[in-house]
């Protein structure tokens, strides 16, 4: 509580509830939603419950205490993960503080974009990896051949995914390129405002 972790988690939870339409806005002062006495009681109750679980299921008790466990040996099918994330129910697009931009005609992220993605990686890290996945969707403006724009949008989305993963985002996250097939409403197709990256949160079935 003293390092601000609980406040950050309350802010992240508020952001998801706002995107889902369950709240009008995230709480402006999350620290007023709890008290030290409440936290102490919750910790005591949690430790008692984990102690009871440990007798029958030591592995589950270790997970509840946040202790590392051996990685599962089962192989993950990348295509199955992609299909799961693509078809998952959308929660909403994450409101990015700053812009994700690239050098002209390339998938090279600009220095300012790296700072934006550093913040984004921290924000994403607050979400539950079992229930929230990420779709990174790249778009271009209608300039040049359709196939070139499709390829560029996919490369840009993949560059964002790769950078987020390098910053510790270890969750189901996929890159999707849309080319110029989904331009913004009331914006001319060739307008550079159509060049954008969406960070879409989706809800996984638990």
Structure description:
With 206 residues, the protein is of the alpha+beta class. The longest helix is centred in the last third of the chain and has 21 residues, at 146-166. The mean pLDDT is 82. It is built from six helices and four strands. It starts with a helix and ends with a strand. It has a four-stranded mixed beta sheet. The chain folds into two domains: 5-64, no CATH class; 78-203, 2-Layer Sandwich (60s Ribosomal Protein L30, Chain: A).
Summarize the structure.
It contains 6 helices and 4 strands. It has helices spanning 5-19, 36-54, 58-64, 78-87, 111-124, 146-166; strands spanning 89-93, 132-139, 173-177, 196-203. The protein is elongated.
Q: CATH superfamily of the largest domain, please?
A: OmpA-like domain
Shape by Cα distribution: elongated
Mean pLDDT: 82
* Second rung of CATH, namely the architecture of the largest domain: 2-Layer Sandwich
Q: Could you tell me the strand content as a percent range? A: 5-15%
What series of H and E elements makes up the topology? HHHHEHEHEE
